[in-house]
Amino acid sequence: MSAAAAGLAGAAVGVALGEPAQAGPADAAIRLDRLKLVSLSHVNDPAKTNVFPGDPPFELEVIATIPKDGYFLQYVREGEHTGTHWGAPGHFNEGQPLADQMNPSDLFLPAVKIDARAKCAHNADYALTIDDIQEWERQHGRIQNESMVIMWTGWEFKWGTPAFPNFDTDGTLHQPGFSIDAAQWLIDTGRIGYNGGTGIDTFGPDLGIDETYTVSTLVYNRHRISLEILANLADLPTTGAWILCGGHINKNGAGSTALIYGVIPPTH
Predict the structure, then answer these.
(1) What separation in angstroms does the CA of 51 have from each of 42, 102, 104, 261, 264?
(2) CB within 10 Å: which end of the chain, N or C, has fewer?
(3) What is the number of domains present in the chain?
(4) Which CATH number fits the domain that encloses residue 260?
(5) What is 59-74 written as a DSSP string?
(6) Tens digits of per-residue pLDDT, 49-79?
(7) In this structure, is the dihedral angle defined by the CA atoms of residues 184, 185, 188 and 192, taken in order, positive or negative?
(8) pTM value surpassing 0.90
């Protein structure tokens, strides 16, 4: 666990258990029951769920009902990256950790949100730049190391419609993402460091028109993760929140369809 995560968790647990707070001036003791949780995940629905080209469709089949069987149960068929999900480094890099080889602390990270909706609305192929990030930092302060850097494109509002994949007449996908230079800069400067990552409300951090997946290859490495097809980003503060990724973990999984929470301290 990172030092920042340990500080938050330690202070929260200590106060929740009634122990004297030991936090220094930079660490506020937080009661767990005062944390606010927001879901950053879409609900998967066979009638709405957009899937990446080539991925299997999302399907639900009722296999037990209360009148007949005494309980209700559905059979779920999906790819590991269906709907809102997180991806493990081994998703793009052979020999890198897969889902069952990650640490719990890799899925609990401080988060920042960069609102790029205005630029993306005018250019579906917009790539977030280093200048965009540095301008954000001039307003909000330096992004701490080992962070989850989330790009809010506004694509979440297109979910469940043909506007989400946004194919042109030639079948080319058009979605915004991170520029290669910005992804490399976030890595080189430590902002997403060893076990941070990038998040976005599109299919992934790459531009839709980039079939080389260069940004994904860069981000998915070491213990860095990518959060994809995020929702409800209006409820996530620009700074000060954390993300917590849930979901089942498969043996040698490329990641997991996930319930991703924004964890918001009471100061927000």
Answers:
(1) 13, 25, 27, 22, 30
(2) C
(3) 1
(4) 3.50.30.50
(5) EEEEEE-HHHHSS-EE
(6) 999 999 999 999 999 999 999 999 999 999 9
(7) negative
(8) no
